[in-house]
Amino acid sequence: MPVTAARIGQINLVAIPAPDQDRSIEFYVEKLGFEKRTDVPFGGGYRWVEVYPPNGPTGIALAPPREGGPVAVETGISLTTADADATHAELRAAGVDVDAEVMRMGEPVPPMFWFRDPAGNTLLIVEQP
Prior knowledge:
Helix content: 10-25%
Strand content: 35-45%
Number of domains: 1
CATH topology: 2,3-Dihydroxybiphenyl 1,2-Dioxygenase, domain 1
Shape: globular
C-alpha cells in the first residue's frame, strides 16, 4: 500500500559525504552564504552537521562518509538564484569550482550551471527570477 501524502510532509534534509567537515562548513558558510544550524557529536566520534541556505526550509547534512561509501557524488541538489550569471561570476571570483559557462538550453529551461564543493560533490544552481 502506498504511503499517503498525509504521512510525508516535505523534504527536510539531504545528506552528502563530507570527509573534511570543517572544510565543507567553511565552504558552505563562507562561499555560499549558508548558515550552520547544527554541529553536534554523535555515534562515538562522529559529528552531525547541518547547513541551510538563508531562505528555505531544506538543509544539507555534511555527513562523514560511510566506510567504503562513495565521496564526490553527483548530489542531485538544485539550488536557486535570481541571476545565474551574477552568481556564477561571484562564485568563480571566490575560487569555487564552477562550470566554465552558464548553460542556456532555451525556453522553458532556465539558465543553470554546476559547481563542486571541496569534497567534489556536484550541485546545480538554477535561475528562478
